[in-house]
């Protein structure tokens, strides 16, 4: 599906993050083969896992009407991501969410848990269809612009063309940007799509029970550790944390 998330312009990114405001991106067409090749070369040259670089994680959430309880839970749990990552490095998070009629928004990069919690508390969930394709497009673009180590997506449904999502996931896989797809509940269509997105991006898929904060906490902690310290940090955590073990076991 065409269209991209709304986000601040480059000069407004810090201001948007500080004030809790988000911005929008215009619609965009699919990449031509030559654009993809140029993008891959540029992003690989940026070496987002270089020693001393800040870990950058896109934290994407389905904010459609049924998701309010999980949104509130994620708002509380995001502090654990910063805390876990802080033990081994540094972490910046870019919140991306969709809701309503074709509304998809992205914040600037945020490095403070309290700031992210304040921003999330001002956002309410609204009825609408899924827009996972826009989330993946935003991750691809941001990887080219400033480097992204991983993408986390939390949702319970998929209402888009699976082939389109797979193409975007494959591009992220080429760029070594894994997507961690965390499914709440048991929707079969969502499970099939989420697993394929994870596989093609060289990420991981995990399911958690509805309202299970402890399960989601473990998964988010593991994703944050990967973003801050890479595969080796996740491997170390997997020896003591089940969430990390579930992720590292799938990553290629």
Description of the molecule:
- Strands 3-2-1-4-5-6 form a six-stranded mixed sheet, with helices on both faces.
- Helix content is 48%, strand content 15%.
- The longest helix has 26 residues, at 213-238.
- It has 252 residues and is an alpha/beta fold.
- A hairpin with a 3-residue loop joins strand 2 and strand 3 (103-106).
List the helices and strands and how they pair.
Layout: H1 13-19, H2 33-46, E1 55-62, H3 68-86, E2 91-99, E3 103-106, H4 113-121, H5 132-145, E4 150-155, H6 162-174, E5 179-184, H7 188-200, E6 204-208, H8 213-238, H9 242-248
Parallel strand pairs: 1-2, 1-4, 4-5, 5-6
Antiparallel strand pairs: 2-3
Helix pairs in contact: 3-4, 3-8, 5-6, 6-7, 8-9
Distance between the first and last residues' Cα: 28 Å
Q: Can you write the helix and strand succession as a string?
A: HHEHEEHHEHEHEHH
Structural class: alpha/beta
Biggest β-sheet strands, sense, barrel: 6 strands, mixed
Tell me the Rg in angstroms.
Answer: 16 Å
Strand content: 15-25%
Portion of residues within helices: 40-55%
Instruction: Quickly count the helices.
Output: 9
Order of strands in the sheet with most strands: 3-2-1-4-5-6
Mass-distribution shape = globular
Total strands: 6
Q: Mean of the pLDDT scores?
A: 86
- Point out poorly predicted stretches: 10-14, 46-51
Task: Quickly list its features.
single chain; alpha/beta; six-stranded mixed sheet; 6 strands; 48% helix
């Amino acid at each position: 599906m065409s269209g991209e998330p709304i986000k601040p312009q480059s000069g407004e990114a810090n201001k948007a993050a500080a004030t809790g405001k988000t911005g929008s991106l215009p619609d965009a067409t699919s990449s031509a083969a030559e654009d993809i090749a140029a993008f891959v070369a540029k992003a690989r040259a940026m070496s987002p896992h270089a020693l001393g670089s800040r870990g950058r994680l896109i934290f994407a959430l389905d904010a459609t009407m049924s998701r309010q309880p999980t949104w509130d839970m994620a708002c509380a749990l995001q502090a654990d991501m910063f805390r876990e990552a802080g033990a081994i490095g540094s972490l910046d998070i870019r919140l991306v969410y969709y809701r309503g009629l074709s509304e998809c928004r992205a914040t600037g990069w945020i490095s403070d848990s309290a700031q992210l919690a304040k921003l999330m508390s001002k956002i309410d969930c609204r009825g609408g269809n899924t827009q996972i394709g826009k989330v993946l497009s935003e991750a691809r673009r941001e990887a080219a612009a400033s480097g992204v180590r991983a993408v986390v997506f939390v949702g319970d449904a998929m209402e888009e063309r699976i082939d389109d999502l797979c193409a975007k996931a494959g591009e992220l896989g080429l760029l070594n940007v894994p997507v961690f797809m965390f499914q709440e509940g048991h929707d079969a269509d969502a499970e099939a799509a989420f697993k394929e997105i994870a596989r093609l991006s060289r990420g991981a898929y995990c399911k958690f029970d509805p309202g299970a904060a402890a399960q989601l906490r473990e998964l988010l902690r593991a994703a944050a550790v990967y973003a801050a310290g890479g595969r080796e940090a996740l491997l170390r955590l997997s020896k003591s944390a089940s969430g990390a073990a579930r992720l590292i076991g799938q990553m290629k």
